[in-house]
Specification:
The complex is a heterodimer of chains A (about 600) and B (about 110). Chain A is an alpha+beta fold and about 600 residues long. Chain A folds into 2 domains: about 1-25 and about 50-350, no CATH class; about 370-599, Phosphatase 2c, domain 1 (4-Layer Sandwich). Chain A has helices at about 1-15, 30-40, 50-70, 85-95, 100-120, 125-145, 150, 160-185, 195-220, 225-235, 235-255, 265-300, 305, 310-370, 415-435, 445-455, 530-535, 545-555, 560-575, 595-599, and strands spanning about 375, 380-385, 395-400, 405-410, 460-470, 475-480, 485-490, 495, 515-520, 525-530, 585-590. In chain A, β5 and β6 (about 475-480) form a beta hairpin. In chain A, α8 (about 160-185) packs antiparallel against α14 (about 310-370) and α9 packs across α12. The radius of gyration of chain A is 39 Å and the shape is elongated. With about 110 residues, chain B is an alpha/beta fold. Chain B has one domain (about 5-110): 2-Layer Sandwich (Transcription Regulator spoIIAA). Chain B has 4 helices and 7 strands. In chain B, the strands form 2 sheets. A 5-stranded mixed sheet of chain B has the order 1-2-4-6-7. Chain B has a two-stranded parallel ribbon with strand order 3-5. Chain B is globular, with a radius of gyration of 13 Å. Chains A and B meet through loops of A and α2 and α3 of B.
């Protein structure tokens, strides 16, 4: 028995190229690529007829062996077969070979079954009838199940696929085959009109058939070599082997010493094996449990025999029914776990894709920002801290053809991907406007035009839009709902310039004021988005303009880069473990003077 | 969304009983006020006495409501303080919305 069960697994392991043609199954799947790489060079694109014939021959040999094992077992009186492995083996093989070869396989199986039955001296009608019913049963089940290639290839363990397998292959078709077989026996007057005998024959036939399918088919499907290479990739191969051996030892102990209740202790370890190593664990676990249970029961030992008051025939039936129920429960649990795992993996995967997408977008957004640079006496530097990956904030500094510097900083309402997209559009609009307008044209008119043309469906933004003459330090800006820029002089406290102004894209017609300023040598102009001063600490207290002023006052002798670092450091300390709720950006424009040159 | 309605002299007074109108609440807030406008209330007083913080999204929601009531309607705002008051000043929304210190003052002005 154990030999018969172990055989297909060994067979699978010995010839990895036997599993159909992996290249036919979803080329884009990375798991397939992995599997192809793992299984080596033996896989050719089109299997030659010779090799197919050899495979059919090997399959038929295995079928002959497994049917012989079923028939040669010392059957208790009138027991049809303890464990009918034929159908399960046929179904498993059909599911892993290409569909177009099925006809050849089924024909070979038919002949093999008939010959073996003939060898075991069955009546000719019985011989043909049983062979036909076996082949039909496997073929119909395979036709239904092969419609889910993901499942048969072991890449999916959806609950639905296993439920279909249990319903069609384990419950429905064996029941039909048993009914047909019992009728056949009845017609041949083997069991005359003895109702009790008919029932017993039917149930023994049914559970023998069903158990064979329940044990052998999942084993063949799930013990494909790539399942092992995936286990190895997850580093669970050794653990799996240890778990299966431990499970086997536990099962033997239960059958040697345990009572009826101890039987149910089998289920939790089987579920653990499954949980750790997946459906390979189920296949291996059932492959261990069923031979041990049947072996002990046929030998007249163990809980089933006790349960049946020593009637071995009934005990075998009990054992088979229990095994099938155990299989059903475990598959259900495992499929539910697997479903959860699958959904989780799917979520992780799609989250990863979104994340990578956003990060790519963030790279583009950052690339639009000006690098720290010096133009004549002016040095520009910035700080850019998105609250998520991308930000609704942006800024730019451009050199105009007339030698003046144009600059802007803007903050799109809201944050995240939508605000970031709009900020890129606004960045472009403002950069064009900054370069395009002649030096004589009023800044406020440029801003009012942009406001008028801003699409009503887009979120609005706040803006500082200005220009600066590097030679004289004379500058002007328009403030559109953006926090007031801070003028940091060499002496004295920082002062806030401007005061108020309508944001862009909120109210259709607006008038903006132009604020003039002068950057003396060594002066700096600091622009920031509201995310900086509205950043909250753990208790919800805002960072505030006052704190920013005090901080700037403290470090105003430091370089621009140091000043920005100090702001970032202080902000992060303020927020603590809390993440930024809004995007933060800072643009700092410094006019170097004689004192700087001397340093 | 904690909004308490009260109708006085044909004006719908909405007491906003929540501390923040920010990105998280802005669109729900906008929808809530929009349903009131749909029901025929075109003169509203929004009482923001309990609101400590309005961000750019919240401000956008308020302006969207104002656009919704149309040229014949009014949305007056009552009880702005602290950073909310500063935001209205910074963005010149104090010129767009009539602001009052108390609901009574707003009602008196609107029914006059």
């Amino acid at each position: 028995m154990a030999k018969a069960i172990g055989e297909p697994a060994g067979f699978e392991g010995a010839s990895p190229t036997w599993i159909g043609d992996p290249s036919l199954r979803g080329k884009s799947d990375p798991a397939i690529a992995l599997r192809n790489a793992g299984s080596g060079k033996g896989v050719s694109n089109q299997p030659r007829w010779g090799s197919i014939a050899v495979r059919i021959l090997i399959s038929s040999g295995l079928l002959a062996l497994s049917i012989s094992v079923s028939l040669a077992l010392e059957q208790p009186e009138e027991h049809v077969a303890t464990l009918w492995l034929g159908v399960g083996l046929q179904l498993g093989i059909l599911l892993i070979v290409p569909k177009r070869q099925w006809a050849a396989y089924v024909a070979a199986f038919f002949v093999t079954t008939a010959v073996v039955l003939w060898y075991f001296e069955s009546a000719p009608v019985m011989m043909l009838g049983a062979a036909l019913s076996n082949c039909l049963e496997a073929l119909v089940a395979a036709l239904v199940l092969a419609r889910d290639p993901e499942w048969t290839a072991g890449r999916s363990d959806r609950l639905g696929a296993w439920a279909k397998f249990a319903l069609i292959a384990v419950i429905l078709l064996p029941a039909m085959a048993a009914t047909g077989g019992t009728l056949l026996l009845d017609v041949m007057s083997h069991i005359e009109a003895n109702r009790a005998l008919v029932e017993e024959t039917w149930s023994a036939w049914y559970v023998g058939d069903a158990l064979g399918v329940a044990v052998l088919t999942p084993m063949i499907l799930r013990l494909q070599p790539h399942q092992f290479s995936e286990l190895r990739a997850r580093g669970r191969l050794a653990e799996g082997a240890v778990l299966v051996v431990a499970f086997g030892a536990f099962t033997v102990t239960v059958f040697l010493h345990g009572g009826i209740l101890a039987l149910f202790l089998i289920l939790p370890p089987l579920i653990i094996v499954l949980y750790r190593i997946g459906f390979v664990g189920l296949a291996a676990g059932m492959g261990v449990f069923v031979p041990v249970a049947l072996g002990f029961t046929i030998a007249g030992r163990g809980p089933f025999v006790r349960m049946a008051d020593g009637n071995v025939s009934n005990a075998i039936l009990l054992c088979q029914v229990f095994s099938m129920l155990a299989f059903g429960v475990v598959v259900l649990v495992a499929a539910l776990l697997d479903e959860r795992q699958r959904l989780y993996q799917q979520t992780i995967r799609s989250h990863g894709i979104l994340r990578r997408d956003l990060e790519a977008a963030a790279m583009i957004q950052t690339a639009l920002l000006p690098e720290t640079r010096t133009i004549g006496s002016i040095t520009c530097s910035g700080l850019f801290l998105p609250s998520s990956v991308v930000a609704g904030d942006t800024y730019n500094v451009l050199t105009r053809t007339d030698g003046k510097l144009a600059f802007f900083q803007l903050d799109v309402s809201g944050h995240g991907a939508a605000a970031a997209l709009v900020s890129v559009a606004a960045h472009n609009t403002l950069s064009q406007a900054a370069l395009g307008h002649a030096s004589g044209e009023a800044l406020d008119e440029v801003v009012d035009d942009i406001n008028r043309d801003w699409p009503g469906k887009l979120p609005y933004f706040t803006l500082i839009f200005g220009e600066l003459d590097p030679l004289t330090g004379q500058g002007r800006f328009v403030q559109a709902g953006h926090p007031s820029p801070m003028l940091i002089g060499r002496q004295g406290a920082p002062t806030l310039l401007g005061g108020s102004g309508f944001p862009i894209g909120l109210i259709a017609t607006t008038v903006h004021d132009v604020v003039a300023f002068t950057l003396a040598a060594g002066d700096r102009l600091l622009m920031y988005s509201d995310g900086l001063v509205e950043a909250e600490d753990q208790s919800g207290k805002a960072f505030s303009v006052e704190r920013l002023c005090a901080l700037v006052e403290d470090v105003k002798t430091a370089s621009s880069q140091m000043l920005l670092s100090a702001i970032e450091r202080e902000l992060r300390a303020w927020c603590g473990s809390a993440s930024l709720l809004d995007d933060v950006s800072v643009l700092l424009i410094e006019r170097k003077g004689a004192l700087n040159d001397a340093e | 969304m904690m909004l308490n309605d009260e109708e006085r002299l044909g004006v719908l007074v909405v007491h906003v009983a929540m501390p923040r109108i920010d990105a998280m609440w802005a669109s729900a807030f906008k929808e809530e006020i929009a349903t009131r406008i749909e029901k025929g209330h075109h003169r509203l007083v929004l009482d923001l006495s309990d609101v400590d913080f309005v961000d750019s999204s919240g401000l956008g929601a308020l302006v969207a409501c104002l656009k919704r009531v149309g040229p014949l309607g009014t949305i007056a705002i009552v009880g702005t303080k602290g950073v909310v008051s500063k935001l209205f000043a910074l963005t010149k929304m104090d010129r767009v919305f009539p602001l009052y210190d108390t609901v009574d003052a707003a009602i008196e002005h609107m029914s006059a």
